[in-house]
Amino acid sequence: MRKLNPGTRFAAFLLAVCFSVGMARAEIRQLTILHTNDLHARLLPLDNGRGGFARLATALERERRASEACLILNAGDLVQGSPVSTIFHGVPIYEIANLFGFDAATLGNHEFDYGWQTIPKFLKTARYPVVVSNLVDGEGKRMTDKPYVILKVRGLRVGVIGALTGDLPSLTTPKTRGDWRILPVVETVRRYIAEVRPQADLVVLLSHLSPAEETQALEQLDQVSVIVSGHAHRGLAAPIPFQDRVLVRVSAYGGEFGRLDLKVDTKAKKMVSYTHKRIPVDASIAPNEAVSGLIAKWEAEVAKVVDVPIGEAAKEFPRPEVRALMERAMAEMTGSRFAFINQGGVRDALPKGRLMARHVWNVMPFDNKVVVGTFKGRQLPEAVTRGRKVDPDADYRFVTSDFNAANQNAPGGFGTTGLVFREEGGLLRDLFIDWIKQQKMLKAAD
Predict the structure, then answer these.
(1) What is the Cα–Cα distance from 116 to 220, expressed in whole angstroms?
(2) pLDDT value for 182
(3) Which of 100, 118, 139, 392 could pair with 377 in a Cys bridge, judged by C-beta atoms 3.0 to 4.6 Å apart?
(4) What is the pTM of this model?
(5) What is the SS3 assignment for 143?
(6) What distances in angstroms separate CA 414 from CA 21, 153, 314, 396, 419, one per listed residue?
């Protein structure tokens, strides 16, 4: 056997050492993140046949079992969007969602819709951590116990930091928001990254942000590998990559969820590659029996209120046309010349055929009240008059919702400040139901 000379043996030794060090530095692990956002309490399948909490539970469990290491994350707005949520102020939705197997979640702005005092009930009901880093009161105390959580899955440590949109003030009213305020997203998350990085192999931002805030976070938070986001109801056609990180978001209402498969370098503490797919939740998926049972229990509580016929629709009315119908109803039912409802206040379409009260509850799940004021024509902005001829010195009755009255100059509002609405009526939802009953048949939006 030929012997290696000392120089050759030393070179081989160095090569082996370098190879082993390189392997240690490049310890690559698999991780799957299943993610949902903006489920909005849509317990039952949608009119298009997609979604439903019972099917979603089955699909999430199926994908978890098919994964080597898996986390399930929810990016906020779990509540507000169906009669069960509205009537019982969201708590049953958190009870049912416990069966999804969420590993962590963050809050959305609609968790405030029943008043900030209800959120501690959500946090107590949830059997998984709910994290928000940048939501504090006037004294700087966080609403959630934790700004982040370290999740361990098959030996992989994943730091999940929560963040909520800075638009919260314009998406709530002082009554529902209280003195809670939002700290700057990037600055706050960056501060917590310094705590998370030593404890985690990968950092994930679980967020409920506007698209502009998503972009800012993606470009500026260089130590966050993955951003799982919600708030914008439109799902991304494809993940948004930036350098060595990625942003994902799916469509609202549970008609789909996302599956993000990652390869993680645990030494470099970053993602090295990913694949993503949006998985539809359709009628081919068998409902989870436990979830179905809970849904049936709560739906029985509301059926007498919402499963009653109120009229007919000669055609399907998409959301912009539903908005026009609602404004017409508001004007006619209050004797007003002008009416305004923000497009974001219309949460669903109206189907063709028999209309049930449930359809209107889905369109207007909020407990917004009707308010009316009398104003000079010169005080009414273009968003209200929409090009109609107005005498600047004449008096006009103008009807809107108490939410719009409290957020006049917010994005999507009617673009003014200081209008005082002195008359308050009942719930906008009830007004719309009564108007449809009077119409009997809806034929057109104008």
Answers:
(1) 30
(2) 98
(3) 392
(4) 0.91
(5) coil
(6) 63, 48, 30, 16, 11
